[in-house]
Amino acid sequence: MSTGDRAGTPGAGTPGAGIITAAQIGTGVMAASVLVAALADVTGVQLGYLAVSSALFLAGCVAFSVGFLRAVGRSRTETVDLAGLFYLTGAAPRPVRRMLLGLWFVQIALATVSVAVTQPPWAVMAPVFGIGLLTVWSSRHGSFPPR
Fold this sequence. Notes:
It is elongated, with a radius of gyration of 16 Å. The chain is mainly alpha-helical. Helix content is 67%, strand content 0%. The longest helix is centred in the middle third of the chain and has 32 residues, at 43-74.
């Protein structure tokens, strides 16, 4: 099973590749919606921006809940720590950790910028998507020591 290419990026055979792809798509859609909302103060655009931000927030809430409950189940037989669960510290291969944390940090940066360039700044809700996917990845694919 391939965990990535020579450049240190996750490959197609990486565990949880679908989660990584979802994070990439979500971050791209968020970036596009913030950009369009910043450039066009039209009601339809603002409603689309609200819809994207809300969808990412709700998907993140669901992902976080699913990941957390799965981690609770794993904690019966493994020592699941918070750093590994939420930040993939010691629980994920370096390329996966870099990619997912990097995308989450981009989401946080976009949310921060949106406060200055959009009114109202709906994107502040969207980074919940990133932490939700981090939690899902680590609860499904993370390696934790046995109890």
